[in-house]
Amino acid sequence: MPTPLPVDDILPALLDHLAREGAVVLESPPGSGKTTRVPIAVAGAVPGQTWVLEPRRVAARAAAQRVASELGESVGEQVGYAMRLDRKSSGRTRVLYVTEGVFTRRLDDLAGIDAVILDEFHERSIHTDVALAWCRALRRSRPDLKLVVMSATLDGDAVARFLGCPRVRATGTMFPVDVRYWERRDDRPIEARVAAACREALSNGSVLAFLPGTGEIERTAALLGGVDVYPLHGEVDGPAQDRALRDAGRPRVVLATNVAETSVTVEGIATVIDTGLARQAAFDPWSGLPTLDLVPIARDSAAQRAGRAGRLGPGTCLRLYSRADHDARPAQTLPEIRRIDLAATVLALRGRPLDWFEAPPPGAWKAAVEHLRRLDLVDDGGLTVLGEVVSRLPLSPRLGRLLVEAAALGWGREGAGLATLFGRRLDGDLVDRALDGQGDPREKAYLSRLVPSQGGKEEDGLARALFAAFPDRVGQRQGGRVKLGDGGAAECEVGRDGYVIVTEVDRVHNRARARTMTPIPDGWLLEHATVRDLVRWTGDRVEVREELVYGELVLDAAPGQGDPAEVGRILHEHVVANLHNLVPDWEGGAALVARVAFLRRQGVELPVLDLDALGRALCEGRRSARDLGQASLVELARAQLPDPALVDRLAPATIRLPGRPRAAVHYEGDEPHVASRMQDFFGLADGPRILEGKYPLVLHLNAPSGRPVQVTRDLPGFWARHYPGIRRELMRRYPRHKWPEDPQALYRE
């Protein structure tokens, strides 16, 4: 890697790489000028527009103003910006700074855009990952499309390998920053600590303080009376942003969220106060909506914040947390692709696969697809007609679904107002608030223009729209609790019992509290209900209850028949250990199974009979142990055989002996055998055989008491060699029984 040079000095090499390879990765530290210098240079090398993707509104607007000012123009001429609810551009615009979501909504129509610059790629927003993968794939069909990836802290080698392009490095003008830590315990609220630190630091010049959100900024500003305070966050309007960024010629305090970490220059800052906190994009599984969670920042963000104090000269950074806390934090912020809901991404991509720089977790992707399917936005063929409409809206899929449904029912303006209420931590019924006209007026007007009402207002249309957008957030309110359709539960204010849509829930430790609920009629759930059987064991039988359900909510129930296989499975599970006592002919059936198994070992083609499977089949269609008293294992087993008579002929269940009419043949074990008193075999010159005389049985010769005396397969040999000696002992012990000298005599007679 060549020695880094200032941004202006590396521009020729960067443009040369773009001309030859079409893509380049630029590593450049904060303050190097990459956000303002590179886009205008790239724009001079392509015929169409150059789009610069910025992670934040403040950065997009400030960068556009800075570059336009350097060109001696107003924003909207050669240089413009575009973001939600705010756009300044014209037919002359060559460089357009856009927030990343604007680009994502234009994925299918990049005509006229000849260069894409991904600024601050190290922040790894989901939109940046989508843009990188999309542009990489698009360059196969549009080799003229130029791509520049710029990062302040990320090692660009991995990105360069992914794109198959070179990387260049630039230097920046950074002065030393004295980093200090707040090591002592301080139980005051974060706002009080920041205010005290700002007052003390003002003696050295202007102060930039990083706080997690607008609420903390407002409370800190209230504590800084008598001080020039300038808030800086995404909701601040353009003129107020300009005042915060520019050096006023006297010490001031800029209270900023993480929008000031990168891309923008806050002039005249001598000291940075860092709370070490930020609100990070995440996903609330209760509401199914994007959220901003309060989290400790990673070490790379801490370095970015500290660097803001060294832009114009040596500075100081006071971190309001300990060095041990800092060193224990992760090195880099976890990419959004690994921590947020991906439904909006799936919708924007229309389900099309991408070759990702870092692939999303498969489970999260699958969950996002199922979520969109529940909203009727996708099916097996891809996006539905409704999904196509929602995909073009600057809203999450859930709120887009709400807006479209409300407009279709004639409540477009109220639906727009309802959509603006989410995420504002309100209580009660959001539908009532929307009907009262609440909601951000500017946002409401913007959304209403995107999806105007169609026809007259249908009754309860706004609540129906909410139901369409939150079909998985239905609950049943009973007293101070609400049972949720997904099986969970939450506390709630005591009110009228009935079905409600629970859109937002507070979680404290293991307790959940439903904060916003909208009542809905029972009939709405019936339209989408399904029937299921609840099958359970009650102690002596299987009971079946047929339930009409919406999720886990039971709307109605009655006795049912159930699936015979499932009923039988549960019966078998509870009686299997006692089947041999419950089924009258179990012993005979088990013997038949053993006979078939023996014949199969001898090469006879017969089906496999499994005793456990037969037991399960006996239970199918029955509900109690008592019912099994009418079952026949023998009949069931014989029904499985193509020719039961063949089994009876080759492996009979019993045989005749001279001393008894029928003796059972036992086939369990390795060798079939017959067991009987020795006297029963008198008169046989040879032992009985099966398999049509081909297979001699093992004989268990017992004493009159039933005690085994001899086991043999060679009956003539036993008579000749062993019987004489055994006879004397048996005559002594059993004198009342006949013990002939020649046990085969009866056979010859």
Task: Explain how this protein is built.
There is one protein chain. With 749 residues, the chain is an alpha/beta fold. Among the domains are: 5-171, P-loop containing nucleotide triphosphate hydrolases (Rossmann fold); 177-329, Rossmann fold; 576-650, no CATH class; 654-748, no CATH class. Helices cover 36% and strands 24% of the residues. It is built from 28 helices and 34 strands. The strands form 8 sheets. Strands 1-9-2-8-7-3-6-4-5 form a 9-stranded mixed β-sheet, with helices on both faces. Strand 12 (229-232), helix 9 and strand 13 form a beta-alpha-beta unit. Helix 15 (397-408) packs antiparallel against helix 16 (412-421) and helix 21 (564-575) crosses helix 24. It is elongated and about 135 Å long. The chain starts with a strand and ends with a helix. The mean pLDDT is 91.
Question: Can you lay out the helices and strands and say which pair or pack?
Answer:
Blueprint: E1 5-6, H1 7-21, E2 23-27, H2 34-43, E3 49-54, H3 57-70, E4 79-83, E5 86-88, E6 95-99, H4 100-104, E7 113-118, H5 126-138, E8 146-151, H6 157-163, E9 167-171, E10 177-181, H7 190-201, E11 206-210, H8 214-223, E12 229-232, H9 238-245, E13 253-256, E14 269-274, E15 277-284, E16 289-296, H10 299-307, E17 315-319, H11 323-328, H12 343-349, H13 362-374, E18 378-379, E19 382-383, H14 385-391, H15 397-408, H16 412-421, H17 430-435, H18 441-450, H19 461-469, E20 474-478, E21 481-484, E22 489-491, E23 498-508, E24 511-519, H20 522-526, E25 530-537, E26 542-550, E27 553-559, H21 564-575, H22 579-582, H23 586-601, H24 611-619, H25 633-639, H26 644-650, E28 654-657, E29 660-666, E30 673-677, E31 689-690, E32 695-696, E33 698-702, E34 708-712, H27 715-733, H28 745-748
Parallel strand pairs: 1-9, 2-8, 2-9, 3-6, 3-7, 4-6, 7-8, 10-17, 11-13, 11-14, 12-13, 14-17, 30-33
Antiparallel strand pairs: 4-5, 15-16, 18-19, 20-21, 20-23, 21-22, 23-24, 25-26, 26-27, 28-29, 29-30, 31-32, 33-34
